[in-house]
Amino acid sequence: MRDPLPSQPGNHAKQDNEYHREGVRNLFLACEPLTGWRQVQVTQRRTKHDWAAFVRELIEIHSPQAEKVVLVMDNLNTHTMASLYEAFAPALARRLCEELEIHDTPKHGSWLNMAEIELSTLARQCLNRRIGSPLELEQQVGAWQQDRNSQAPKIN
Hints:
By secondary structure, the protein is α+β, with helices and mostly antiparallel strands.
């Protein structure tokens, strides 16, 4: 908090509350609109390595039986097959690439609406207040994800 400005003749003292930022986090979100499943991961940054780790988890943990994992996503510079090669050994990166089918969207693609629906719901139901720590954020997002997946709302 800033020091208040003292009162003067004809004016009251003035006090300003200053917001102190405790840090920021990135959220990676994947959703299957037809099944109502979603996965959210909280990371400290949004780097190529962070994205690669998220994709690896999608493939190996959440979709191990899938022949292909189809990702439709925006055109960020971190969202490329090359990111997998930067993050992992060549053999692992190649295996992950073979299990992925990536579609970049046009600038005004309708998939953005689907992603925005999930992110908006997450923001309204979970992130609509101050969250005190990164650990609390992970716990709150995890609880939201579990509840949302148990309801399995689909995106039409």
